[in-house]
Amino acid sequence: MGAGAAHSAALFLAMLVICAPGAWIVLNSLRPTVEIMAKPPVWIPRRLSLDAYTAMFGGLGQGGVPVLDYFRNSLIVSITSTVIAVAVGIAGGYAFARYRFKGKSALFLGLMLTRTVPGIALSLPLFIIFARTGLIDTHLGLIFTYVALNVPFTIWLIDGFFRQVPRDLAEAAQIDGCTPWQAFWQVEFPLAGPGIASAAIFAFLTSWNEFALASQLTRSVNSKTLPVGLLDFTSEFTIDWRGMCALAVVMIAPALALTFVIQKRLVSGLTFGAVKG
Amino acid sequence: MTSAATRVAEPINRLRITRSLRRLGAPVLLLMPAIVILVVAIAAPLLFSLYSSFTAYRLTKPETLWTFVGWRNYVNVFSDPVFWQAFGRTVLLLTIALNLEMVFGLGLALLVEKATRGQRLLRTLMMFPMMFSPILVGFQFKFLFNDNVGLINNALQSLGITEQAIPWLIDGALAFFAIVVAEVWSSTPVFAILILAGLLAMPREPIEAAKVDGCTPWQSFRYVTWPFIMPFAYIAMTIRSLDVGRAYDIVKIMTDGGPARRTELIWTLVGRTAYSDARMGVANAMAYASIALSILFTVYFFRKLASARTQIAADW
């Protein structure tokens, strides 16, 4: 009994540490700035309102932060780059899952290594090149960059999902008269489909959350994304905590929803091969 | 008419495509888009930045891109104590954070695996921090650790543990601690979720056999469970090492390398040198050091992962 209680207590404490920061942000987006700044602190909120949200989405928003524009930019950039990265990932992942070829593991490692380049280090040459070619502060430039950022990971995940589809199925379909192309789209693709959707959501989240590159490659409402827009709430000496909290909630909501959808498959995609070699 | 033409042309086209596919090799063709994109968007820009690290390039003077200075930038960077401090601090941060994440992740996975009820809900809650963009993590902990309005100081003062507000982000050592907390909070779930997957995938027989043979719980954990979940831990390590540069976002917003460069990491230093000081040539030389660091981490964990996998395959 004692061990059981200790286990529950430890579990509760762990979950508290995990959840409290997020809950604190949500709470503070709902209460007036006076209450946030109050000394001694106000623990039980006296008045909750959606003022911060209505201010943010009403016209230019509080303090003139064009949240709607940033939201639109984030959506355009994230969705487009995800679609392309997944298409490229399906081709690449299929090649890794189904074919043996020379230098396969070296190539795989090489692809992964491109992902290790820290965003800020990659931003230097891209900044110079984009500034000279006029790609800076455009959706196109950011989309292109995010595709490259996501491709290694979509290949890793989709490779794992295709390997879980038995090879015999496609072969059987071909014996029954399918072309390899038909066999792929009608047999293998649907079976790996849910996994591919997970890879897509993962790629979407990477683009949705990226900051280091976006902060240098965007400049104005033309292409600034939400993570960069978050900084608009800070000035030299003051921070609009309430506005920032509200924007944080807006940013996290889609991410939360999407992660719930994929959580289980994401893990199976990443761990496939851990046991079977 | 046209339909008749296409009907004839289609098989011929398909034949031609199939034949050229065979000649080039399907895997090469399938991988071509990925390789082209990565070469154009990452490899080529990195070659360009390698070149510019040998020039005196300043953003404010475009013509300096053609002034070749040899190894001067690298000599300057490597003889600069500021750089080595940032480099050392980055390695220290990564070492502390990765080890803590591993320990907490293992603990969390074991706790959740033991839970008899609500395991699905717990697993979902556990993944919560993974959804936070690093920039949000940074902002959130900047708020929590704020000396004036932050939750942590408020709680400490309300509980009467301290009289004075603790200057979390203003004191160098405390700020480093706060960054470690933020980093560990955001990345522990990666370890927990993958180790949990390993625990759930583990066959029951070896553990029961160990119990029958009279192993203590610790022994069966150490010699049966642990070797089995090792590859899962290394997958988590590998995924994390692919993305260690993410810490830039957190530090950028929490302290921006301050106070007085006491939390400067290699990435914030690169950003400052490039964009605030406009010294692109020098910044690129530093960036190469940071890239080398990341590659080192990744290759190390990939090799660990490979050897752990073969070991498992041999044992089971």
Q: Describe it for me?
A:
The complex is a heterodimer of chains A (277) and B (316). Chain A has 277 residues and is mainly alpha-helical. Chain A folds into two domains: 1-49, no CATH class; 63-271, Orthogonal Bundle (MetI-like fold), CATH 1.10.3720. In chain A, 74% of the residues lie in helices and 0% in strands. In chain A, helix 4 runs antiparallel to helix 9. By secondary structure, chain B is mainly alpha-helical. Chain B has a single domain, classed as MetI-like fold. In chain B, 75% of the residues lie in helices and 0% in strands. Chain B is built from 13 helices and no strands. In chain B, helix 3 (72-78) packs across helix 13, helix 6 (134-144) packs parallel to helix 11 (247-254) and helix 10 (217-242) packs antiparallel against helix 13. Chain B is globular, with a radius of gyration of 26 Å.
Topology:
The complex is a heterodimer of chains A (277) and B (316).
Chain A lengths: L1 H28 L3 H5 L13 H7 L9 H32 L5 H13 L2 H15 L5 H26 L2 H9 L4 H30 L2 H6 L8 H4 L11 H31 L6
Chain B lengths: L1 H23 L1 H27 L19 H7 L2 H34 L4 H8 L7 H11 L6 H8 L13 H30 L3 H8 L4 H26 L4 H8 L11 H11 L3 H36 L1
Helix pairs in contact in B: 1-2, 3-13, 4-8, 6-8, 6-11, 8-10, 9-10, 10-13, 12-13
Descriptive key words:
heterodimer, A: 277 residues, mainly alpha, MetI-like fold, 2 domains, 12 helices, B: 316 residues, 13 helices, globular
Radius of gyration of chain B: 26 Å
CATH class of chain B equals Mainly Alpha
- Specify the CATH homologous superfamily of the largest domain in chain A: MetI-like
Secondary-structure element series of chain B? HHHHHHHHHHHHH
Q: For this structure, what is the CATH class of the largest domain in chain A?
A: Mainly Alpha
CATH fold description of the largest domain in chain A: MetI-like fold
Helix and strand sequence of chain A: HHHHHHHHHHHH
What fold name stands as the CATH topology of chain B?
Answer: MetI-like fold
Cα(first) to Cα(last) distance of chain A is: 41 Å
Chain-averaged pLDDT of chain B: 84
The geometry of chain A reads as: globular
Structural class of chain B: mainly alpha
Main pleated-sheet profile of chain A: none
Give the class of chain A from helix and strand content and strand pairing. Answer: mainly alpha
| Number of DSSP helical runs of chain A | 12
The CATH homologous superfamily of chain B corresponds to MetI-like
DSSP, total strands of chain B: 0
Count structural domains of chain B. 1
Label the CATH architecture of chain B: Orthogonal Bundle
Strand content of chain A: under 5%
